[in-house]
Amino acid sequence: MNENKQIVNVTVAGGYEPSVVKLKKGVPAEINFKRTNAQGCLDVVHSNDLGFSEELPLNVTKTVQVPTDQSGQFTFSCGMDMFSGKVEVE
């Protein structure tokens, strides 16, 4: 992370690693999701809290812009809501 942007890489393989993403409030942020496992429901990541939904093709990095204007804990999950992760903005 630098002062201008926060970038976090999340590997999607049988869940999310890391499953908790910590961000600083007020600093623009993005999460790079990369699916490395063909498990079906992990082919989508979405978050109603953060306002995104992305298809995750196998072995392709998808970047999602994450709002950091409010502190709190926000969830994201797979298409079937079986696997989830959390974004903590402090």
UniProtKB/TrEMBL annotation:
<dbReference type="Pfam" id="PF13473">
    <property type="entry name" value="Cupredoxin_1"/>
</dbReference>
<dbReference type="InterPro" id="IPR008972">
    <property type="entry name" value="Cupredoxin"/>
</dbReference>
<feature type="domain" description="EfeO-type cupredoxin-like">
    <location>
        <begin position="3"/>
        <end position="87"/>
    </location>
</feature>
<protein>
    <recommendedName>
        <fullName>EfeO-type cupredoxin-like domain-containing protein</fullName>
    </recommendedName>
</protein>
<dbReference type="InterPro" id="IPR028096">
    <property type="entry name" value="EfeO_Cupredoxin"/>
</dbReference>
